[in-house]
Design goal:
The chain is mainly β and about 100 residues long. About 0% of the residues lie in helices and about 75% in strands. The protein has one domain. It contains no helices and seven strands.
Amino acid sequence: MIAVVKVAGQQYKVEKDQTLYVPHLDGNAGDKVELEALLVESNGQLSVGSSVKSKVQAEILDHVKGDTVIAYKQKRRKGFRKKKGHRTEYTKIKVTSIA
């Protein structure tokens, strides 16, 4: 059984017992999360759009930060330099069931 879920404006194709990193979700490690399915494929049957009444259950495993991204700006011969960096927060989840 395969489903497509939408999390924070991004779509992910998921299967049961799959782990993946999604944009930061509220909650602590061990909390259960319910995601809305946009598309579900089960036994060759495909349901899309408003006919999908399935929910995807997932468990939050951990909160992590991504790699450092540095934005560096400089104007030549002016003495202007600006360096700013950030690390995007992600949540590691495990899909427990598609129902």
